[in-house]
Amino acid sequence: MAKFTISVFGLGYVGLSTAVCFASRGFRVLGVDTHKERVRSVGAGRPTIYEPGLGKLLAKSIYRGLLSCTADYRRAVTEALATFIAVGTPNKADGTIDLGSIREASRQIGEVLRGKEQWHLVVIRSTVTPGATSQVVKPIIEDASGKECGTDWGLCMNPEFLREGSAIQDTLRPDRIVIGEHDKRSGDHLENLYKQFHRGDRPPILRMSLTNAEIVKYASNAFLAMKVSYINMIADLCERIPGADVSEVANGIGLDKRIGPLFLKAGLGYGGSCFPKDLKALQGFAQNVGAHLPMVNAIIKVNELQPSKAVELMKRFVNSLKGKRIAILGLSFKPDTDDVREAVSIKVIKALLDDGAEVVAYDPVATRNARRILGGRVAYAQSALECMAGADACIVVTEWEEFKRLRPEDFLKTMKTPVVIDGRRIFDPKNFQDKVRFAAVGLGTSDRAPRDP
Ligand code: UDX
Q: Are residues 15 and 157 in the same domain?
């Protein structure tokens, strides 16, 4: 027997992972999306995104009759006890958050609540700027329903911290659950729902105000992005010091318990659907409320410069890029996903094309999505070796597991000139430096030795 019914608005990354994980824990779930093709595809057990473990869990949930998808939001809200809003919150042209889909979902829920007698819980799962849940969602639902929040219906803000590539594991086993509550009854209700979800093996549950929960999400992402930009800044320093290596430095820093080893991997910068968007939204929000966040500005600045490292390092070996064939390994913004939103690969490839290079790229799963952005300006290979064949230089942009198995001999055997740029620090410099022309982010060499003071 199903526990109870929830509905999830928005079947993107966050919504679909939430829906599938709740169904896998025995809840009945109604997934709602305005995108008809997405409803059809997910409803038939075909995920619209690549995410390890998602397809299997989705098929199982549908087979067990616990998950169904619909464009009919009225039915979904009517039948459910709680509705999670997991719609997109992109940036507007000026960088500030676009709450258009949140407003629309709130209006639809309110409209249904007008005719629903039973108490209903609304949970904001999307990332929204501080104050949005109480100042945007609440008044819209109250207006559309004619009912009072806290009395007739409940409201919580419950940010997600899932990473693409491990979204299912992160949803099933989060480090913590943050519940921002409008009132105690709403918070109790959501906490109870998560107690049923996690049974005996429950992560810490933190209860706080709606606004603090909203801030936790931004502060977490900004902190993680700060670690990445910090180590990329140290990488830049290392590149200018002969014999220095940021990977060893990161190990030395990370074992300090106060710092921690995660998110200290230097590379060509962060991308994806969250960090770039959320940091810009935070910057825009801070400006509007008169707050000064110089560290957030610095995180963004370091990250904007980072992709240019790829071409800069390559120019140590290749003078002019005109007519040169450059192999790009990896298109997705990180491994184990087909997502190319804000991917470093796109920036690197555009810079190479602008300099007159010919680009051939390979990615295990993201080629289709990259092609939508880059079109026919790039040649797409079917394997890493095919991509490298005849190339004048090769840049590792995404650290897919299969690239880590490449040996110097693979580059020597296939490329016209074996110039290898390790943009994600996946190769052992000791093994590569003597055999191919090798440069890597955060790796110092003698040709950039600083002058004597
Ligand atoms: C992130 C947050 O981790 C997650 O909690 C939030 O809900 C959404 O945003 P995600 O964007 O999926 O998740 O990926 P994440 O693993 O955090 O990586 C973000 C970017 O940082 C990637 O481009 C990755 O390559 C880069 N990164 C990460 C580094 O360059 N170095 C690191 O050490 C870690």
A: yes
